[in-house]
Design brief:
Layout lengths: L1 H19 L4 E7 L14 E3 L21 E2 L2 E2 H8 L5 E4 L23 E3 L5 E3 L5 H11 L2 E6 L6 H12 L5 H8 L8 E6 L12 H14 L14 E4 L8 H11 L9 E8 L14 H11 L1 H16 L6 E9 L18 H16 L4 E7 L9 E4 L2 E4 L1 H8 L7 E2 L2 E3 L3 E4 L2 E4 L1 E7 L5 E7 L6 E7 L6 E7 L19 E8 L2 E6 L3 E7 L1
Parallel strand pairs: 1-22, 2-5, 2-13, 5-8, 8-9, 9-10, 10-11, 11-12, 12-13
Antiparallel strand pairs: 1-17, 3-4, 6-7, 14-15, 16-20, 18-19, 20-21, 21-26, 22-25, 23-24, 23-26, 24-25
Helix pairs in contact: 4-5, 4-6, 7-9, 8-10, 10-11
Bound molecules: alpha-L-arabinofuranose (AHR).
Length: 524
């Protein structure tokens, strides 16, 4: 009886253990430190904060009388979370909102500011409580730079020029003294100026040639008067560029730039592309499976082709790559969450979306010689947000964690790498099994980010640094039990990074990467 029981148990054991632990896919990744590429501009990690839903009101601004802890009306929990991301720049006040924004509505005593309706986004009441001074206070608190999008659609070059004069002029001038009376004698620093937004769409539905004529005037007259911004510190002027794969704006703006005269210039061309796998956005942001996972990740890889295509056109006009490509709206745009105002663009943020963010950041870094700026849409409570607020509660999304893990790549030198990870087919859709990025930071440390797109299988990664001996790899990994895992009020840390460590294995460092994960490691 006893021996037959043991025999039964023994017979059962091998079946259980081999079925549960398939050998992870082995992948070699070799970083080449001898041929560094372009600097991965820190401005690739920029944010976008529009007057849209709770993007500003509730997400950033609660007002000085709020019981929610704040400094001069700006919520302190959000400031602390954003400081950890070292946000290089914040694009404001829109988006579509910017082309109907009149800056004078947002200065002076709060009680006297114009109250209007946000015609673009959900017909919300716009109090203008958050205006220029509040914006600069906010970016000062998080340690970031201003990216102002000026009104080309319903404004004039004069209105935009006067805004810049108000913000940056000497306090002894009429414009500067008005700013001083409103509480800020020192000129502000405006690092980036967007010359309109989506002029081909909500920003005025202009033909490329019509826009070019407008843009030249704004590029001439909208300037900083801040003496600290003379010469190379002058604002970067970002012209409206293409919508996805349409090339009309790219051609027209770059041709105009090539033929420019002394009186005007631009330093960047904008590209907008949202991952939505169809339009209007209809894919769910929660409770989805493998097919939705694969479909949206496949769609996001279009960014690589778009960047290459527009860069190639820019190369024809600007082989020296003086004009940067600024992907100043990107991210996943999904169906509005049930029960929300569809005009507020509220969606959940899943582990899948975090992987998607890492893939886009890798693409921008691979093209760092031309792509020198990018802004995810958007910072708080809107689309692929970093931060979600609900009254006094603040939550970090899986995408936030990717931006935090990628901080070491800000201003790092791009390092080429080779990795043959092959493909994985998920619900009939074929994806690269993995994607990776390597960089050398200013302290001389080498960093590697690896995204394992396989939703089911781990990767056994052998990391090598050509010509050098590696001892360890230390960092963090972001993963969860399912591809649609999200953070919720009840479980705010459901998707959060945990430590990851690799040890020497022969001449490599071996590290196990879980399925559906993003890992960032420092090589030593
Ligand atoms: O990010 C939401 C909107 O998307 C922006 O306002 C607009 O520029 C784009 O179409």
């Amino acid at each position: 009886m006893r021996s037959s029981l043991i025999a039964l148990l023994l017979a059962a054991l091998p079946a259980v253990s081999t079925a549960a632990t398939p050998a992870p896919t082995a992948v070699q990744l070799t970083v080449d430190p001898a041929h560094p590429g372009a600097r991965i501009d820190r401005n690739l990690f920029g944010q976008f904060a529009e007057h849209l839903g709770a993007g500003i009101y509730g997400g950033v601004w609660v007002g000085p009388d709020s019981p929610i802890p704040n400094v001069r009306g700006i919520r302190s929990d959000v400031v602390a979370a954003l400081r950890a991301l070292k946000v290089p720049n914040v694009r404001w006040p829109g988006g579509c909102f910017a082309d109907e924004y009149h800056w004078r509505d947002g200065i002076g005593p709060a009680s006297q500011r114009r109250v209007g309706v946000n015609a673009n986004w959900g017909a919300a009441i716009e109090t203008n409580a958050f205006g220029s001074h509040e914006f600069f206070d906010f970016i000062g608190q998080i340690g970031s730079e201003a990216y102002l999008s000026v009104n080309v659609g319903t404004g004039t070059p004069r209105e935009a020029a006067e805004w810049l004069e108000y913000l940056t002029g000497d306090a002894r001038t009429t414009a500067g003294s008005e700013r001083a009376r409103n509480g800020h004698p020192e000129p502000y620093r405006v690092k980036f100026i967007g010359l309109g937004n989506e002029a081909w769409g909500c920003g005025g539905s202009m033909s490329p040639d019509y826009y070019v004529n407008q843009m030249r005037m704004y590029a001439r007259y909208v300037r900083s008067f801040n003496p600290a911004q003379a010469g190379p510190q002058a604002p970067v002027r970002v012209a409206v560029g293409p919508n996805g794969d349409e090339t009309g704006y790219t051609e027209a703006v770059m041709k105009a730039w090539r033929e420019r005269v002394w009186a005007w210039d631009i330093e960047a061309l904008s590209l907008h592309f949202y991952t939505s796998a169809g339009w209007p956005p209809a894919h769910p942001s929660e409770h989805f499976g493998a097919a939705e996972y694969a479909l949206l990740l496949k769609d996001t890889f279009k960014m690589e082709g778009l960047v290459a295509r527009h860069s190639a056109i820019m190369d024809q006009h600007d082989p020296q790559k003086k004009v940067a490509l600024a992907v100043d709206e990107w991210g996943v745009w999904l169906a509005p969450q049930a029960g929300t105002n569809p005009g507020f663009l509220v969606q959940q943020n899943s582990l899948r979306d975090a992987l998607l963010a890492s893939l886009n950041l890798n693409i921008f870094a691979r093209h760092a010689d031309r792509v020198r700026m990018a802004n995810i849409a958007q910072m708080a409570n809107v689309l692929q947000a970093m931060i979600v607020t609900d009254g006094p509660v603040m939550q970090l999304t899986p995408t936030y964690h990717v931006f935090r893990l990628y901080v070491p790549f800000q201003d790092a030198q791009y390092l080429p790498l080779s990795m043959a990870a092959g493909d994985v087919t998920v619900a009939g859709i074929t994806l690269p099994r993995a994607d990776a990025l390597a960089g050398l930071d200013r302290e001389g440390r080498t960093w590697v980010a690896v995204t394992n797109l396989d939703p089911a299988e781990p990767l056994s990664l052998d990391l090598r640094l050509a010509g050098r001996r590696l001892r360890t790899a230390t960092g963090e990994v972001l993963t969860a039990a399912t591809v649609d895992a999200v953070n919720t009020l009840a479980k705010p840390d459901g998707v959060a990074p945990r430590p990851l460590h690799g040890e020497a294995h022969g001449d490599a460092v071996r590290v196990e990467l879980p399925p559906r994960s993003v890992s960032v490691l420092r090589l030593e």
